[in-house]
Amino acid sequence: MTDNTFSTSAARFACWVTRREGRKFLQLNPQFSEPAVPQAKVGRDDWASLYIHIPFCRTLCPFCCFNRYLLDEAKARHYFINLRKEVEFYIQRGFRFSDFYFGGGTPTVLMDELLGFIDFLKKNFNVRQISMETTHREITPEVIAALKKAGVNRLSIGVQSFDNDLLKAMGRLVGSGEEAKEKLKMAQGQFDTVNADFIFNFPMQTVAQFEKDVATFQELGIDQATFYPLMPSPHKKSRLERRFGEVETSREKDFYEVILRELYRGGYKASTAWCFSRGSRLIDEYIIDYDDYVGVGAGSVGFLNGDFYVNTFSLEKYDELISAGKLPIVSWRHLSEREHLRYYMLTKLFGMSLDPQKFRQRFNEDANHKLWWELKFFKTFGLVKSNKDNEQIEVTPKGMYTVCVMQKEFFAALNTLREHYIEKQV
Ligand SMILES: C[S@@+](CC[C@H](N)C(=O)[O-])C[C@H]1O[C@@H](n2cnc3c(N)ncnc32)[C@H](O)[C@@H]1O
Ligand code: SF4
After folding, report:
1. Could you read off the pLDDT of 101-153 as tens digits, one per residue?
2. Which atom of ligand 1 is least distant from the CA of 68?
3. What is the CATH number for 412?
4. Residue 280 and residue 258: Cα distance in Å, rounded?
5. pLDDT for the residue numbered 1
6. Angle 50-193-402 (CA atoms, 0-180°, nearest 5)?
7. Residue 106 and residue 175: Cα distance in Å, rounded?
8. 57 and 11 in one domain?
9. Residues lining ligand 2, Cβ inside 6 A
10. 386: buried, middle or exposed (CB in 10 Å: 19+, 13-18, 0-12)?
């Protein structure tokens, strides 16, 4: 067997395990009850981050796997009121946060509400960092100025591709590739980090098209890019595959090799297996910076002390639960020790390294002992190595693709849950 076949087999095996674990992980308990209500480490604002989901967009992209609804202004304004109440429920439970991640949907669709909400956060917390997602359609000099003034550090702009034919085929209606370039240039330099989101391995996308996108991104000199492997849900023919045709995983590696080759050449470094940055940049993966996070809003998830929580995806149910003074959590699961360990390992390796000291602080045990089997596997195949200087367990260049697809498998399992919850309006 050649080295390449070996590493492909290792990647396949690691993905199979992740898919299986992902499915188990997401077998949730639908009876959310008071004993399972999340509790804070009182007085600490550095142990959990806050993810805030704004599920409204001006147009809906048919490939999108996140919880999102067509913007209805009245509903969206009411939603922001509920969002404050939900944050207050966490404050009452002793939670304090300093890092905030707005995702969606498109959080900037109602700027006055968004800015009001950020003011509310500032009144209640010691705000250190704010990361914000949007589309280039939303970007104007006024919006940039307002977000800067509000203290946004990282602005992430969804591009997907600069190729107009591909954007059309994707059904992405937020504007042309030329507009995306213009808006990225407008935002670059205005925040600590400007990020552009791209998708790869879309059914009708070619590697040549993708190479062009990566080259254009580099010519523009943007701080950071996140490359999402297209994620359908795996358990049945997902909505996405019904519309666009099968997602061929066999092509994925060809796309990923373009990313590795071109971005390293261009001086970018991997912040995660999907995210490449110049200099030390903020990344949007709240699951990496923080071991624990709270999710607020319809369709968000949270992870606290080995418990995984899922909020309702339905706007009506969200309103109902919040109005009744309840957290809008509809299912949860307490992870077994092994699941927790593996989830921890996956997220850290996705972020390129696992710190044995931090591992010890969290689990009170030695990482090499507790994760003996898993690390042995990764080391044997040359996917990770121990750095003798800083003692970190680091992903090797050879391990990057494996980690990329493992994370995709995990998110894809989450997408199954999302599709189910969206369809059934849980
Ligand atoms: C959920 S959107 C939110 C921000 C903004 N509305 C946008 O369109 O970019 C964030 C990113 O998720 C990625 N994304 C959405 N659906 C996806 C899917 N099915 N597979 C992979 N990535 C996806 C896209 O790259 C998108 O830019
Ligand atoms: S990709 Fe972004 S703009 Fe498109 S539907 Fe999803 S959240 Fe909305």
Report:
1. 999 999 999 999 999 999 999 999 999 999 999 999 999 999 999 999 999 99
2. 1
3. 1.10.10
4. 22
5. 46
6. 75
7. 14
8. no
9. 57, 60-61, 64, 66, 68, 104-106, 135, 158, 174
10. middle
Q: Which 8-state DSSP code applies to residue 336? A: P
**CB 410, CB 22: distance < 8 Å:** yes
- Of 327, 384, 377, the residue nearest 354 (C-alpha): 384
Average pLDDT, the chain: 89
- Residue at 310 is within a domain: no
Kindly report the backbone phi and psi dihedral angles of residue 424, in degrees, each rounded to the nearest multiple of 5, phi listed first: -90, 0
Which ligand has an atom closest to residue 157 CA? Answer: 1
pLDDT in tens, 371-392: 998 899 899 989 999 988 888 9
Residue 3: per-residue pLDDT: 54
Question: Which domain does 205 fall in, by range?
Answer: 34-287
Q: Does a structural domain hold residue 382?
A: yes
**Structure letter (DSSP) for residue 29:** B
Amino acid at 100: F
Q: What is the edge-to-edge ordering of all strands in the sheet holding 269-270?
A: 269-270, 275-277, 224-229, 193-200, 154-160, 129-135, 99-104, 48-54, 292-296, 301-304, 307-311, 329-334
* Domain's final residue, options 250, 266, 287: 287
Please tell me the distance from the alpha carbon of residue 378 to that of residue 384, in angstroms, as a whole number.
Answer: 6
Give the distance (Å) from ligand 1 centre to CA of residue 368.
35
Together in a domain, 108 and 127: yes
Residue 178 resides in a domain: yes
pLDDT at site 28: 67
pTM: 0.93
Is a pLDDT exceeding 60 seen at residue 237? no
CA distance 70 to 76: 10
3-state SS class at 72 = coil
Give the three-state DSSP class for 95.
coil
In a domain, 426, yes or no: no
Indicate whether 273 and 344 sit together in one domain.
Answer: no
Residue 106: nearest ligand to its CA?
Answer: 1
Q: Are residues 368 and 266 in the same domain?
A: no
